[in-house]
């Protein structure tokens, strides 16, 4: 397949690009290169004849039309987004522009292209979204694909809006779409403003490790390379118009996750041990969702997919990767906003 991946210079998009190229697909990586992007994430495939890069902004419809016309993709995997909840609290406008208006532009560009090609049945528009659209759970229960939407942050509201647009373009215009909603990802190439890399890098530098609120917020942790594998499967075998929840089957409280990371660091960098002495509880994020959990039944029974690594194993690999790849993360520490507390409203 020739796949147009949007946001392929970001964390998850680059994992998709690397995996798709390694499996023999052709990939066109479309990315605006915002603060969160890094072309180093795809350096391993940049020389491949099956890889092309287009710097373009999904807010720019004419640029999208040019990319569709030039590359004529068989499928779109749409990951480009503003993705950091804390930034969405400080500046929601960019989230509406990229996640809502940008997705609308991409849907319209895809629809025009698909229509111009004679509406091939095999064409796919795969929209990658988050479990955060479902809101916050109590102590029990899990999100299924039928859980009503209840987003509570500007980020999750903008993603929910984009999901609704994608479904509407399927129902109204027949665009062959697939949707996926996944839980929190972690792994190599994660931008150092998100919890897991913040913990690793602060601990490594002997700096305080901030944990929001009481640390009791629960997430279902999904290793990014497992996610990329699930995404390609949903693209290839998912039913048109259907959505699939993708989880890691690894629920953990933030404080327990942080302690696991510290334990791996104690083993790999004993000089700084015990790293959990650096943990500090800080003012909570406004509107912080308490618990997310994914019911993976649909993807497991219909597509036969399960995650391949436990959170213990995935974190061990991730910590080791950060220790081995200082040349990757060091320059990112100078990017705007990194290392500062954001989103306190
Ligand atoms: N990270 C997670 O845990 C998680 C969980 C569930 C869903 N998601 C979703 O997966 C997708 C990818 O997330 P991520 O963590 O890799 O994000 P990221 O912030 O690491 O990467 C986003 C990429 O999109 C690009 N981008 C942003 N605005 C753009 C625009 N206007 N035009 C073109 N490109 C633009 C950025 O340059 C960047 O390369 C997002 O849609 C996100 O909502 C992420």
Automatic annotation (TrEMBL):
NAD(P)-binding domain: residues covered: 4-318
Highest taxon in the source lineage: Bacteria
Pfam family, one: GDP_Man_Dehyd
Family per record: Belongs to the NAD(P)-dependent epimerase/dehydratase family. dTDP-glucose dehydratase subfamily.
GO molecular function: dTDP-glucose 4,6-dehydratase activity
Swiss-Prot/TrEMBL keywords: Lyase, NAD
This enzyme's EC code(s): 4.2.1.46
Keyword Coiled coil appears in the UniProt entry: no
Database matches in InterPro entries: dTDP_Gluc_deHydtase (IPR005888), NAD(P)-bd_dom (IPR016040), NAD(P)-bd_dom_sf (IPR036291)
SUPFAM superfamilies: NAD(P)-binding Rossmann-fold domains
Protein's name in the database: dTDP-glucose 4,6-dehydratase
NCBIfam families (alphabetical): dTDP_gluc_dehyt
Record GO biological process: nucleotide-sugar metabolic process
């Amino acid at each position: 397949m020739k796949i147009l991946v949007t946001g392929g210079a970001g964390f998850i998009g680059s994992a998709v690009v690397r995996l798709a190229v390694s499996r023999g697909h052709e990939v066109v990586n479309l990315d605006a290169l915002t603060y969160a992007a890094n072309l180093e994430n795809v350096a391993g495939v940049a020389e491949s004849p099956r890889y092309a890069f287009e710097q373009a902004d999904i807010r720019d419809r004419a640029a999208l039309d040019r990319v569709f016309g030039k590359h004529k993709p068989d499928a779109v995997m749409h990951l480009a987004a503003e993705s950091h909840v804390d930034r969405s609290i400080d500046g929601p406008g960019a989230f509406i522009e990229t996640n809502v208006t940008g997705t609308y532009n991409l849907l319209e560009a895809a629809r025009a292209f698909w229509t111009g090609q004679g509406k091939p049945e095999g064409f796919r528009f795969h929209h990658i979204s988050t479990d955060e659209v479902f809101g916050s759970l109590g102590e029990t229960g899990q999100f299924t694909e039928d859980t009503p939407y209840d987003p509570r942050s500007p980020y999750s509201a903008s993603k929910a809006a984009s999901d609704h647009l994608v479904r509407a373009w399927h129902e109204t215009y027949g665009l062959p779409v697939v949707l996926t909603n996944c839980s929190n990802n972690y792994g190599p190439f994660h931008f150092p403003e998100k919890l897991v890399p913040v913990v690793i890098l602060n601990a490594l530098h002997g700096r305080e490790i901030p944990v929001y609120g009481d640390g009791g917020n629960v997430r279902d942790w999904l290793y990014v390379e497992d996610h990329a594998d699930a995404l390609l499967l949903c693209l290839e075998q998912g039913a048109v118009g259907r959505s699939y929840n993708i989880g890691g089957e690894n629920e953990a409280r933030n404080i327990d996750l942080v302690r696991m990371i510290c334990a791996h660091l104690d083993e790999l960098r004993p000089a700084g041990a015990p790293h959990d002495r650096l943990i500090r509880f800080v003012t909570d994020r406004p509107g912080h969702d308490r618990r997310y959990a994914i019911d993976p039944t649909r993807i497991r029974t219909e597509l036969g997919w399960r995650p391949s690594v436990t959170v213990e194993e995935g974190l061990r690999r991730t910590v080791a990767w950060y220790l081995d790849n200082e040349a990757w993360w060091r320059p990112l520490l100078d990017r705007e906003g990194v290392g500062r507390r954001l989103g306190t409203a």
